[in-house]
Design brief:
Blueprint (H helix, E strand, L loop, with lengths): L8 E2 L9 E5 L11 H16 L3 E6 L2 H11 L2 H4 L2 E5 L7 H4 L2 E5 L10 E7 L2 H4 L9 H7 L6 E9 L5 E3 L4 E5 H4 L10 H11 L5 E5 L17 E4 L3 E6 L8 H13 L9 E6 L5 E2 L2 E2 L8 E3 L2 E6 L3 H14 L4 E6 L10 H4 E4 L1
Parallel strand pairs: 2-3, 3-4, 6-7, 9-10, 12-13, 17-18
Antiparallel strand pairs: 1-5, 2-19, 5-6, 8-9, 11-12, 14-15, 16-17
InterPro entries: Peptidyl-Arg-deiminase_porph
Keywords: Hydrolase
GO molecular function: agmatine deiminase activity; protein-arginine deiminase activity
Length: about 350
């Protein structure tokens, strides 16, 4: 591990300006195989929405196939924003595979690049799934010159992008359930991990550990991007549950209470905006972790997962619009994505 503390670098908020979004394209040897056509259509919709606002970096096993699919869907100007790179993968969860960007607020001098990309170990959410090909993607992209910054090796530490949320200032949010889950970073204690996060992200003065809000069917052990998201003006968007018969009710009641007790570093309560809990969606007898909180913020827009539940989808879209009044809110039907226990934010990673 490189332990230099880069005092001029910070972990930005997701709503800050981005250079691009990264996708890992699905192929026949991923778990998407039974519904590859359906998930490919979702990817094309995401690519269309993203390239209307910013650049898109795609790794794919078959770049020519992907190029032809995109050319049929995207306008010429949008295609110019797409970069394709041939690369194999175990799966497609870019949020937890792609590097995490640190930015500098200082002007570049000489050959100095005001960007660090932190390359962590992804081990299939605690050794649940194979990840050896996924772990090689970032180095291959860097060596091909496709990252505008320095790639910093942190493969000795397991940290998934979906497990942390930054306000871009001094506070980092995470969940105890995920970062303390088995087969991640044992024998490190909570205090050890907290110290490591402060070292990795120099602007962070405190780490907020949330103790509740585990979605049924969640392979990640409780990624924060499925339950609570930080948005501008000290606003937290979070999932609430009103149905006392729902298995989530008590856990998400406790999450809401914890959020109400939180204060900013300026000792002010957070503005809380509540998202509805989607009606239960099952694959055979297994409940899937459907959530509207797993949205992607891009330049000028927000891509929001929907589940063909008109009333709850509309409530979620309206609430997210309230948090982002100046951005276009784009609904993406995520019923296919959720079959593999994730959603839009999980499949994507913004690069600063």
């Amino acid at each position: 591990m490189n332990t230099n503390k880069y005092h001029s670098f910070r972990l930005p908020a997701e709503w800050e300006p981005q250079s691009s979004v990264m996708l890992i394209w699905p192929h026949e040897d991923t778990d998407w195989r039974p519904y590859l056509k359906e998930i490919t259509e979702v990817y094309l919709q995401m690519a269309d929405a993203i390239t209307r606002h910013e650049a898109l970096l795609i790794t794919a096993r078959n770049t020519e196939l992907v190029r032809s699919l995109l050319a049929e869907r995207l306008a010429e100007g949008q295609m110019k924003r797409v970069t394709l790179f041939a690369c194999d993968s175990n799966d497609t969860w870019a949020r937890d595979v792609a590097p995490i960007s640190l930015v500098s607020d200082k002007e570049p001098k000489g050959s100095f690049q005001p960007l660090h990309l932190l390359d962590f170990c992804f081990n299939g959410w605690g050794e649940k799934f194979a990840a050896e090909k996924d772990n090689r993607i970032n180095r291959q992209l860097y060596e091909a010159g496709l990252f505008q910054g320095v790639l910093e090796n942190h493969k000795d530490f397991v940290l998934e992008g979906g497990s942390i949320e930054s306000d871009g200032d001094r506070t980092l949010f995470t969940t105890t359930g995920c970062l303390m889950a088995p087969h991640r970073n044992q024998p490190l204690t909570k205090e050890d991990i907290d110290k490591r996060l402060h070292l990795l992200f120099p602007n962070v003065e405190r780490v907020v550990w949330l103790d509740y809000g585990q979605l049924a069917g969640d392979d990640t052990d409780g990624h924060i991007d499925t339950i609570v998201r930080i948005t501008p003006n000290d606003t937290l968007l979070y999932i609430g549950c009103d149905d006392k018969e729902d298995e989530h009710y008590e856990d998400f009641r406790l999450l809401e209470e914890q959020l109400k007790q939180l204060r900013t570093l300026d000792n002010k309560p957070y503005r809380l905006l509540r998202l509805p809990m989607p009606d239960a969606i099952y694959d055979d007898d297994e409940r899937l972790p459907a959530t509207h909180a797993n949205f992607l913020i891009i330049n000028g827009a927000v891509l929001v997962p929907t589940y063909n539940q008109p009333e709850k989808d509309k409530a979620a879209l309206d609430t997210i619009q309230e948090a982002f009044p100046d951005r276009e809110i784009i609904a993406i039907d995520s019923r296919t994505i959720i079959r593999q226990h994730g959603s839009i934010h999980c499949l994507t990673m913004q690069l600063a």
